[in-house]
Amino acid sequence: MTVRDAEQPRHPPLATAGPVAPLDRYVLSLPSADRERAGAVDRTREIAQMARLFRGATAGVVLTRRGDVLPLRGLPPHPLLVGDPRVLATASRELARSASCTGFLLPAGVGDPERLVRISAIDCAIPGLDHLAAVVVLSPPGDLRGLTTFALRVLGLVVDGTVTTGAIATALGVDVTKVSGALDAALAALSAPDLPAAAVRALRAGLRIPPQCAST
């Protein structure tokens, strides 16, 4: 069971995201009634202001409820946001699990697994108004509290529901001793008395690498 399995979803998960589509082309693809609503209400400025909530954001996109990826005003796209479907799928799934916002870490790219970036997503859906669903931005990782990339991968598994050292070791292909050391470090870094508390704090702080995105 994951940390949020007991929560009710805010809205259905987004469809699988595709390439970035210009906003005007997207609007023209909508049914006529939806085109009229989209034309009457332009939320691009409001959504761009949402993106400014994430300090140091360097890239971003807007997701629609049917899975289209639209440009985010004021920020360029990034290969991690438009080239790897796992990233947007993970953000979509987490927002669907009752979260108004979510954040997690990812390896920055091939060749440097220790360099991380932060992915942050915020729910911007207004049902009945338009098809816009979420803002997803990329920024520097922030304070990692001394946690290594390996410890962050361990926390990603814990948040996702893998909670025994043996199961974590099997998932990562390492010895249980290494996992135990990482868990001890995570408990200390998060000032958590036990593993469930560490999972909640890692989720809230975005201090984890989701297993679905551990290798980008």
Describe the structure.
The structure is a single chain. With about 220 residues, the protein is an alpha+beta fold. It has two domains: about 25-140, Beta-Lactamase, CATH 3.30.450; about 150-210, Arc Repressor Mutant, subunit A, CATH 1.10.10. The chain contains nine helices and five strands. It has a five-stranded antiparallel beta sheet with strand order 2-1-5-4-3, sandwiched between helices. Helix 6 (about 150-160) packs across helix 8, helix 6 (about 150-160) crosses helix 9 (about 195-205) and helix 7 packs across helix 8. The model is unreliable at about 5-30 and about 30-40 (pLDDT under 50).
Distance between the termini: 25 Å
Low-confidence stretches: 5-30, 32-40
Could you spell the SSE succession in H and E letters? HHHEEHHEEEHHHH
- What's the CATH topology label of the largest domain? Beta-Lactamase
In what order do the strands lie side by side in the largest sheet? 2-1-5-4-3
User: In which range does the helix fraction lie?
Assistant: 25-40%
DSSP strand count = 5
Number of domains: 2
CATH class of the largest domain: Alpha Beta
Q: CATH architecture of the largest domain, please?
A: 2-Layer Sandwich
- The helix/strand class is alpha+beta
Largest sheet, strands/sense/barrel: 5 strands, antiparallel
Which terms would index this structure?
single chain, alpha+beta, Beta-Lactamase, Arc Repressor Mutant, subunit A, five-stranded antiparallel sheet, about 40% helix
Task: Give the helix/strand layout.
Elements: H1 23-28, H2 32-40, H3 44-51, E1 59-64, E2 69-71, H4 79-82, H5 85-96, E3 101-107, E4 116-123, E5 132-139, H6 149-159, H7 165-172, H8 176-189, H9 195-205
Antiparallel strand pairs: 1-2, 1-5, 3-4, 4-5
Helix pairs in contact: 6-8, 6-9, 7-8
